[in-house]
Design brief:
CATH topology of the largest domain: Ribosomal Protein S5, domain 2
Helix content: 25-40%
Oligomer: single chain
Shape: globular
Number of strands: 10
Strand content: 25-35%
Protein name: 4-diphosphocytidyl-2-C-methyl-D-erythritol kinase
Family: Belongs to the GHMP kinase family. IspE subfamily.
Structural class: alpha+beta
Distance between the termini: 16 Å
Keywords: ATP-binding, Isoprene biosynthesis, Kinase, Nucleotide-binding, Transferase
CATH architecture of the largest domain: 2-Layer Sandwich
Number of domains: 2
Pfam families: GHMP_kinases_C, GHMP_kinases_N
Radius of gyration: 19 Å
CATH class of the largest domain: Alpha Beta
Pathway: Isoprenoid biosynthesis; isopentenyl diphosphate biosynthesis via DXP pathway; isopentenyl diphosphate from 1-deoxy-D-xylulose 5-phosphate: step 3/6
Length: about 280
């Protein structure tokens, strides 16, 4: 089985409070984009989980893909089932677009089928949130208005513009941003209807550009071309366009020291689209 593992954008990110356990209460809108990693899964019968290639400075046991596979181990139909996973990366790490969470969610979805675990999407999402607050939206596979730490999801239908995605040459530490004493943590909560109509901002932006001059420079450049936004805690920034031509025109002038992509917004995860096709083909 080969599945795409898409990125997401936070169209806005409001921090509405801080919980006693240190986690933050959020409101955000998640939208998938068609920029994806690829994961290949080969079922084995050696009761082993192998992942390749090995990522430098990331022990296998700390890899979210490995952790996701371990989470499903107790639910395997056959205890001898194992898996060989090959991950082909395109999504940048530390960009705020959820690459690691997406890879973990894709692993949960694939192994639920290959290992015949027969868990519901809701059950997979509950398991996934143990590894990361972004994982449930990738498991459920629909654009969503999210609350809580990002795990309380309401399905929404969004416009699907073209996006110019830009990544400055830096890796933003999410922990550093969320522990910064100057981070805004009291944005008033919005009703979902107001959030979708009025949009919002990213409460992390000011802190990120204070600590990361590369992001500050890219944001200043990008906002000269439109309503530039930061996704998650960054480092990626994005602009929405009505058509590919305008997106390509701005991308053509993007400084070459930054990575950039043109991608399309999606209301359904590409993972689910391909997985459902695979299931139908293997039923017949």
């Amino acid at each position: 089985m080969q599945l795409p593992s898409p990125a997401k954008l936070n169209l806005f990110l409001h921090i509405t409070g801080r919980r006693e356990d240190g986690y933050h209460e959020l409101q955000t809108v998640f939208q998938f984009i068609d920029l994806c990693d690829t994961l290949d899964f080969a079922l084995t019968h050696n009761n082993q989980i192998t992942i390749s290639p090995i990522i430098e400075q990331l022990p296998t046991e700390d890899n979210l893909v490995y952790k996701a596979a371990k989470l499903l181990t107790p639910y395997k139909k056959d205890p001898s089932f194992g898996i060989d996973i090959t991950l082909t990366k395109q999504l940048p790490m530390g960009g705020g677009i959820g690459g690691g969470s997406s890879n973990a969610a894709t692993t949960l979805l694939a192994l639920n089928v290959l290992w015949e675990c027969h868990l519901s999407l809701e059950e997979l999402a509950i398991l996934g949130v143990k590894l990361g607050a972004d994982i449930p939206v990738f498991v459920m596979g629909f654009s969503a208005f999210a609350e809580g730490v990002g795990e309380k999801l309401q399905k929404v239908e969004l416009d699907t513009p073209y996006f110019l995605l830009v990544k400055p040459n830096c890796h933003v530490s999410t922990g550093q941003i969320f522990t910064d004493k100057y981070l805004t943590r009291d944005t008033p909560p919005l009703r979902i209807s107001h959030a979708l109509k009025l949009g919002g901002h990213n409460d992390c932006l000011d802190v990120v550009i204070k600590h990361y001059p590369e992001v500050s420079e890219a944001y200043s450049w990008l906002k000269d071309h439109g309503d530039a936004k930061l996704t998650g805690t960054g480092a990626c920034l994005f602009l929405a366009f009505d058509n590919m031509h305008d997106a390509e025109r701005v991308r053509s002038s993007t400084p070459t020291k930054w990575q950039s992509w043109i991608c399309r917004g999606c209301n359904t995860s590409p993972t689910h689209d391909v997985l459902n096709q695979w299931i139908e083909q293997n039923r017949s």
